[in-house]
């Protein structure tokens, strides 16, 4: 699954700086996560870094974007190919 930022977001910018896939953007009024770029940090870290640093715990799994571990790994590989 991709992650989603809930309305409790305080727009502190902590999550955006931690995202290795540049999937988090400043929104109005809260930040948003691009589900096409979010791999839940698969390929980079054991746990999603945005969730780890969020001071208000407002980042959760997006029930509208369910993905298997294999799909997240494939998305990670595609993103890495784009960067090269």
From TrEMBL:
The keyword Ubl conjugation does not apply. This is YfhL family 4Fe-4S dicluster ferredoxin. Keywords: 4Fe-4S, Iron, Iron-sulfur, Metal-binding. Residues 1-28, 29-64 form the 4Fe-4S ferredoxin-type domain. It comes from Aliarcobacter cibarius. InterPro entries: 4Fe4S_Fe-S-bd, 4Fe4S_Fe_S_CS, PSI_iron-sulfur_center, YfhL-like.
């Amino acid at each position: 699954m991709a992650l989603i930022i809930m309305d409790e977001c305080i727009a502190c910018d902590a999550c955006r700086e931690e995202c290795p896939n540049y999937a988090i953007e400043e929104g109005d009024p809260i930040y948003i996560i691009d589900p096409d770029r979010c791999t839940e940090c698969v390929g980079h870290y054991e746990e999603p870094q945005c969730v780890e640093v969020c001071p208000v715990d407002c980042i959760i799994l997006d029930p509208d974007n369910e993905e298997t571990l294999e799909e997240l790994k494939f998305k990670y590989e595609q993103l890495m190919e784009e960067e090269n």
